[in-house]
Amino acid sequence: MTALIDPFGRHVTYLRVSVTDRCDFRCVYCMAEDMTFLPKAELLSLEELDRLCTAFVRLGVRKLRLTGGEPLVRRNVMWLIRALGRHVGHGLDELTITTNGSQLARFADDLFDVGVRRINVSIDTLDPEHFAAITRWGRLDKVMDGLAAAKRAGLRIKVNAVALKGVNEDEFDRLIAWCGDEGFDLTLIETMPMGDIDGDRTDQYLPLSLVRGRLKERWTLTDVPHRTGGPARYVRVEETGGLLGFITPLTHNFCEACNRVRLTCTGTLYMCLGQDDAADLRAPLRASESDAALESAIQEAIARKPKGHDFVIDRRHRRPAVARHMSVTGG
Ligand code: SAM
Ligand code: SF4
Questions:
Q1: Is 23's C-beta closer than 6 angstroms to any atom of ligand 2?
Q2: What is the model's pTM?
């Protein structure tokens, strides 16, 4: 096995795969209400996604996360998750998904069955009306049913909430208490300037340094050295025993320990969430049944992984720093 090591000596061991750009929600910070999605013909087939992910596992990837769009709305996605499940314990340490939870009630048992043990579920508010307003098309009761099914199935759950100024900033105490009661970890995410949405993003940006300062007045937060190679910094909430993570791409530079790359559902590999530089893996994948060309295309891409991102909210021009939507690479 040849490890994937970039020019800065970072080992790439984590692949995030957006299996579809489509979604059954239209969260206000993520998508415009009227989105144009990729024509289905452009998507990699599930078999092709399996082949690509398997090549990455052969090259040393130890953690795979399926995301989207909403991964569980892709037709027959369980086939892919089951196929990838064969690598768990055989090269892969973890197979996981990030989901909005809308389809979880249907899939929770199958996910556990194929080897998934932990999932991330995105919930920005516990208020049903507010939830409907933020997701535009989502229903909180369905997500709650999904979470209950996931718990019953034995899946460990981390809740992701995007921190939105003037929208859910007074709800974090409730989320922390609820996650504590349920035994879920919680991660707060700063909004990232990705893709055109209907509103103005600069109005939504809420620095988590501010949030953390406010939370400290109510909760005892103890730093923990829990590092994932990712952008999250964790504290333990002593009152609940739960972990609380802060993902702060705009106020904190986390690039030096970055171990991840992102693959889209069309086979484009992004070496950095905050940069446009990418590699096309669909052509080498389709060019030959042998994986030799594919593997060298992957190696060549990793050799171009940039040192870091350069997110800035462009306040003067009020345009996103990265043109593609988060749903293309899955966050
Ligand atoms: N649909 C799934 C979900 O919502 O969990 C998976 C894809 S979604 C793009 C992955 C994560 O990215 C979610 O937690 C979502 O809240 C977050 N996200 C989407 N757009 C974002 C943005 N502009 N800034 C920060 N986080 C964002
Ligand atoms: Fe869909 Fe997830 Fe984006 Fe919301 S954040 S619109 S659930 S992809």
A1: yes
A2: 0.94
